[in-house]
Each structure stands twice: as C-alpha cells, then as structure tokens.
Amino acid sequence: MARPFSPFATRAAYGTRQAFRIAWYLGHGIAMSRLAQQAREGARASGSERPRPHTDRPVPGRNRLIADMTALLQRDLENVEAGIYPLPADHDGSWPALIGRSRLFFQDLPAVRQRREKGLASEVLTDAAGAKRPRYYLQNFHFQSGGWMTDESARLYDTQVEVLFNGTANAIRRQALPPLREAFAGRDQRRLRLVDIGCGTGRFLDFVKQAWPRLPVVGLDLSEAYLGEAARHLERWSRVGFVVANAESIPMPASSCDAVTSIFLLHELPPEVRRIVLREVARVLKPGGRLVVVDSLQYGDAPAYDGLLELFPQSFHEPYYATYVEEDFRAIAERCGLMHSSDAQAFLSKVMVFDKPGSSSEAA
User: Fold this and answer.
1) Band of the pLDDT at 3, cuts 50, 70, 90?
2) Which domains are delineated in the chain?
3) pTM to 2 decimals?
4) 7-46 vs 151-164: helix axis angle to the nearest 10?
C-alpha cells in the first residue's frame, strides 16, 4: 500500500538537501574570496596589482541576495508541492566524490587567477581544435582551465557554476520545467521530443528525465568531453541521446521537435550567432512547439542587479556578455518566427519562454 503524501516530510527533505548544498558551495565561495584577497595583498605589496572591477550602477546588498535566493528556493518547493516536478535529486555524488571535486576546484584556482592577471583567454585555440569548431568557441571562458575542451574542465564545471550561484544553480535550472509542463500537458511523453542545445554536463536533462522518465531527449554540444560527462551523469535513464554538433546547424529535420531548451548558453555566443541559433531553433520546432531559455538577467530586469551585471565580465572572461545584457530577445525571436510568451526572474538568472505559432495538430 502506498504511503500517504506528507507535505511536512517533503518540506523537511527539500530543506535539508538545499541547506546542505548552499552551505557547501557558499563555503567554497567564501574560501575563494579570502584566497583572492590574499593574492591581491601580495600583488599590492609587489606593486603588480591590477585595477579592481568598477561600476556606478546599483549592486544588491547581502539582504537582497538572501531574499532572492530564498524566493527561488520557495518557488522550487512550491513547484514540487504542486506536482509540477518531483522532489529533485541533485545527484551530487558521494562524500568522496564531493571532496574530490572540491580538491580539484581549489587546486585549479591559482591557474585561473594567473590567466585573469595576464589576460590569457585563448590557450585552447589550436589548429586541430579550430578545424572542427568555430573560433568564438575556442576560448578560456571564465579564464577556466581547458575552456570547454578537456575532461578536467568537464569534471570541474558543475562545482564552478554552483560556487558562482551560491549552490542554487540546479534550482535555477529547474525553473525551466514549469513552462515545459504547460507545453506537454495532456500529451503522451513517449511521442514528444526535446532537444537541449549546449547541454554541457547534462544537469538540466537529468531534471527533465526525473519529471518525464519516458520522454525522448537529445543533448547537443560541441564538446566531446562535456558530452562524455553528461553520458555518465545520465546513464541511469533510457531514451537519451547525445550529438556533437553546433546549434547554428542543428542536425534534425524541420518541424521535428516539440521543445528546445537552452541553459546558460546565449550569453556566451556572439550577437550574430545568437540570431542564427534562434533561427535554427525556430526551424526544428514543430508548430506549437516551445523554446525555454534560462540565462543571466539583463539590464533593467531587476535594476538592483545592474551593477553586478556590469562587474561580471570585468572579473571573468565573458567576451559576449556585454552585448547579451542589452539584447532585445523579444524582437530577435519574432524576426526568427518565434513569439515571446513570458519572462520570470530566477535569482541571478531569468527564464524566457517563446512559442512557434501554430498547433501540434498542424505538425501531425
């Protein structure tokens, strides 16, 4: 006999898991900040200190950050209680795995700091890599070791992103699930298809499969290393495929996908490439299909954060971020044949939803 649903048990389980994640990754962020301060003091003493990032725009204080983190987690829990998706399993791994990734993260920080100080951001640009990938892709984004090209980078990435978002990156990703639930309502998940462009290590696809275990999904990425990590992370699931490909030319027929998702991708594309990718998404979506984008806030979305958005590319190698935060995605999407449906803030990020005009019956 099934055990009755217990809201208290759900809230207790959710609160325990998320409190641990936030404490773990926030602790990493505090330690990283202290190490950076020590490095700045050493550089100041030697006369080699670089100019500090600067903004005249408003920057959120600690109370605002905590309030918005709390609002995100509250919404995440409400989605679980409403049955939009199950109590999430973050699949962070065992204690030895967590500690091992933590050790790799801190061991890598001196190399990242050295690249930042010297402005080195093209270490991964080689003739062999350039023969298969566009030039804009072959950079050390965030000044990270290996760019998107190495197994070591793929193993570090999830820790780096969670530290950046104070342990809320997975909760942010899950905010793409409610608009997918709307699009899939009343339909047989086995007959649908979702493609995640720039899927990276597959964290978002894991949450998709937790919500729709029989939904066929495809992860598309330009990095064999990251797709290898994604395959390991998603090996528990069936009906999952991966393809090494550029989202500028999605290797799928026109009107063949019910949903396309893009998580933390658009801000790392040049402006002209964003437009090409959105046109490709419109091509592969069926009439009535849906695009769900999760990415950084933009100027004006939450004015208290505008200074933080200006500071971000000063601290990390993000060559296309300054254009991203000023893009009018509604207008771009409309020119590509997609209609804007909604926007919603998710802490430091936002969820943008676009639909291809028509209906699923037209595609059938």
Assistant:
1) very low
2) 1-364 (3.40.50.150)
3) 0.95
4) 100
